[in-house]
Design brief:
The complex is a heterotrimer. Chain A is mainly alpha-helical. In chain A, a hairpin with a 5-residue loop joins β1 and β2. Chain A has 22 helices and 7 strands. In chain A, α9 crosses α10, α10 packs parallel to α12 and α16 crosses α17. Chain B has one domain. In chain B, α3 runs parallel beside α8, α4 runs antiparallel to α6 and α4 crosses α11. Chain B starts with a helix and ends in a 16-residue tail after the last helix. By secondary structure, chain C is of the alpha/beta class. Chain C has 2 domains: about 120 residues, P-loop containing nucleotide triphosphate hydrolases (Rossmann fold), CATH 3.40.50.300; about 110 residues, Rossmann fold (3-Layer(aba) Sandwich), CATH 3.40.50. Chain C contains 10 helices and 10 strands. In chain C, the strands form 2 sheets. In chain C, strands 6-7-8-3-9-10 form a 6-stranded mixed beta sheet, sandwiched between helices. A 4-stranded antiparallel beta sheet of chain C has the order 2-1-4-5, with helices on one face. In chain C, α3 runs parallel beside α6 and α5 crosses α6. Chain C starts with 13 loop residues before the first strand and ends with a helix. The chains are: A mainly alpha, B mainly alpha, C alpha/beta. Chains in contact: A-B, A-C, B-C.
Amino acid sequence: MKSSTETPVAHATRQDPSERVMYRILQILFVALCLLISTHVVGLRAADDLGALVDQLGAAKLSEMDERISALAKTGDAKVIPVLEALGEGELYQRKSDGKVFLVKAQGADLLLVDPVTGTEAGQAPKAAMQKVKVNNAVRRAVRSALGGLTLFSDDAGARLKAAQSMLQTPNADALEAIETAIAAEKDATVRRVLDEARAVTLLLSERGDDEKRQAITLLAEGNGRNGLAVLTSALATADASLKPDIEAAIARIEQTQALWSAGQNVWYGLSLGSVLLLAAIGLAITFGVMGIINMAHGEMVMLGAYTTFMVQEVVRNSYPALFDWSLAIALPLAFLVTGAVGFAIERGVIRFLYGRPLETLLATWGLSLILQQSVRSIFGPTNREVGNPSWMSGAFDLGGLTITWNRLWIIVFALAVFAALLFLLKRTSMGLRMRAVTQNRRMASSMGIRTPWVDALTFALGSGIAGMAGVALSQIDNVSPNLGQGYIIDSFMVVVFGGVGNLWGTLVGAFSLGILNKFLEPYAGAVLGKILVLVLIILFIQKKPRGLFALKGRAVEA
Amino acid sequence: MITSFLMKSLDRSILVVVAILLGLAILVPALNLLTAPDHPLHVPTYLVSLFGKYLTYALLALALDLVWGFCGILSLGHAAFFALGGYAMGMYLMRQIGARGSYGNPLLPDFMVFLNWKELPWFWYGFDMFWFAALMVVLVPGLLAFVFGWFAFRSRVNGVYLSIITQAMTYALLLAFFRNDMGFGGNNGLTDFKDILGFNIQADGTRATLFAVSALILALCLILTSAIVRSKYGKVLVAVRDAESRTRFLGYRVEHIKLFAFTVSAMMAGIAGALYVPQVGIINPGEFEPGNSIEVVIWTAVGGRGTLIGPIVGAILVNGGKSIFTAAFPEFWLFALGGLFVLVTLFLPKGVVGTASAYFARRRAERRAQTGETPDNLAVEPIAAE
Amino acid sequence: MNQTIGQTKPTSLLYLDGVSVSFDGFKALNALSFVIEPGELRAIIGPNGAGKTTMMDIITGKTRPDEGQVFFKGGIDLTKKDEAEIASLGIGRKFQKPTVFESHTVWDNIELALNRRRGVFATLFYQLTAADKARIEEILATVRLSARRDDLAANLSHGQKQWLEIGMLLAQEPELLLVDEPVAGMTDAETAETAVLLKEIAKTRSVVVVEHDMGFIRELGVKVTCLAEGAVLAEGSIDFVSSDPKVIENYLGR
């Protein structure tokens, strides 16, 4: 709030023009120096200068700090970086006795001094003997932009990218030449693109000609506009009348692109939610859709899968930390086996006595879900358990104007893979053939020598096993707690009912359309109201098509 | 016409239960109010309220039995009707607080003052009058059930599909009532009630009266449902349960038959909720939890569905068990409840009352066979769920 | 409006014209047309999948035709009505598998079927009158179930269930009765008795019987329609139809 009066524009116009020209010349000189002349030669000379410049920081008033920092930055010396960083952090102190400035670290009651030029330790001093170099927000900002300028010429492309991004986000007209120099020298395309954008943003704040500015505006309008919009809007207020239409057009264009991208982002969120729904529902589509069993303990199978992941990671962390990135790959088959076995036991122990009584199955499996939940709560405790993301699932990347996180992307891929594998299993293998035969005509299937009880048990185990694998994936994005499964059970039923029972494609379409619908309603209605609306819509939809989107027709329905 | 309709309901077992309920309505308040606290037969006030709560649960289970036991509609959303009735009563009790709230606002309940609301929302008007609130207790759940059922039964959503969408309904309401802007107190719900019809809600006398009223209303509802299921309409209801399309081909409008039972049942659930709230002292969105509705189903199943008396017995047994269990071994209550679900569905599908009455029927038949009577007329309970 | 529709329509009881329906690409009925006159007893034969049950589904409103007309008593368009409406118009149906209300007594089954007002409140306050009682007893006697009136329908034998269902249809007092395989699973004696029963019923109303049992149809001695692949293959007396080469090839020959 306080700093809003000191926008970069205001700051730039406040300076004396002649001083600014001088400053620029000097800056270019130094940048060139640091780029062209061997650092070794300069190094010795610079060390003295540097020491003096750093010491000057201690003596400066707050209003002079800006200048002093610029002077430091102009040296282009890498040693300036820790000094400026320390200044920003408030870890730069002046010794009262001789006015020399040091980097300090607290050590007990005393301060440990580090020489800013040599980087070596320079003994300790009591706190009373030292005085902190004063900083305020304006100084911190100056430090940040100076640091940005300095690292633009780093050898490390990552550091350059970071610097360019910081120039882009907090543009400063003074840095324009530095940016341009950097652009000329830049080889890396990504860094170059950000630099170009940073230059355009910075240029708008500068005193350059309208033509150049117009080019900059065009460049900004073409980009994804996340940074351009703010600069253009503030530039609109101060720009010449001749530039205004251009800026306005550019703003309109950016807003349009942004609307498109945000719709795209919604689609992405929707796909992501859809893939989660698909994972949670697909096992249910087997048990409910193929077998006609209402498995209310399905959510608990997901939960068991997540806890299997937790167990695997515990073992890996304690015994084979190097394998951590492989923990999910290990957990996946294990979760399938664990939940598959639990499912098998449930089918043999309870469900097989209840065939043909779907409502009773619902009650019995609900009871089982309570037991499973409470067991996990007794063993692992009621609180959330920590399940880590392997490195290949952490972080995010930008795709145009979209931000895409790796874990969500992998979950979409995984959901589709599970779907494809299941489809293959049902349509192309003898097990699938048997399962379909039992679904369509149990008595005929059994008279043809298919062991229907065995097929039932395996089908249920398969549905449960898939739920377990879903649990592995969901452990990456959700809290692993005994209640994990409850959150998914109603949504999964909605997906299966909406998509149509007995049809895997229906489940796929149902999951993704509900996911996307949910995410498109959210911005208008809010997350909770959006969800309520989706539920109401599904209830209404079922009135219209009681058998779901992809319903079986004709006589098969009666069977 | 009405009297003969009601008279039909009074077979022996129903009469016995009604008599027990009336006895309790007198005995429990008397033992609470007229005996000294150290008297061996004294019933402490907290127990009066606890038993009163069981009776409202019994009424809820009875309501569910009308649709599930007799019409085969497994509603997984009956707790929603219960909660709506409870909220209607809660709104009346909130308005009764008046200026005695922490903020001392004569019109707005505390949570509205806290949310910085300036005016009473329109749907809170009228709730300062008891008769209006009492009407809403019945009308709101009834209307929701009517609209929901009208859509669902007309498009022939049935079986597990219906169960799932009733669950979705209560889930949607749960989410909605959690929102502060709904105007029902959000997360915290409605609480801190002061008095009902001018009587202090904490007073022993009020508590005892609430218990007696709960027992009376439960007895009345039992007579009413018994009359319904013993009428020709009740036979149609069972016919729909057993062979829906056959009933339709006989010319019955199955959707109307179901809709009536569903609406009446929802209204009874609403009344149960309204009796529950003053005895418990709070109503919050947690009552809409889908798990609650499923629990009602297990009370009904434990007692025996399609027996009317069974659900009352089941609700009291399970909840009594819950009270004892959660006090003694809180860790194991969910295991016990879960196990109950599994065991009852596997081994006691007719429930306690259904199994017992089938057993006694067999015994009677055997005795008659021994004494030389014709075994022809096997006395099977007319409405036992087969 | 009656003039615009075919000539037979005003006089016929049931009139089907060009009725087609398909399930997932399978044509269950293919431009089926036929007519039932008032008071007629008609037998329908045909191989499995010929569309006999689908035809009944369409007449009783269970399935909607994709195209074609179905009229009852001249001007009543059955394609616009649902099962309950069609039943109250006076069309009764007996299913292939006997469906009675198993947890009701035989008496209650007939009482429920009795042609009285069927609304919620009418049934709620219904009182069994002496006239209704007499009617139920009469029907029970007709279907030979008087002795078992207080037994649960679930405890009846298969043949008795078939008769109970026929008794329920009588109680409905329909003008048109659709009967799907009434003698399936019956003993020879029961079959003969059922034939007598049906002929008696047909004296006062129209009856359509779907049956596989050629002996039974011969016993009925009525006009026969043979369906195959969703359309009428042949129509006439049993001897005429059973000598038709197409019928022999499609149905009898196998």
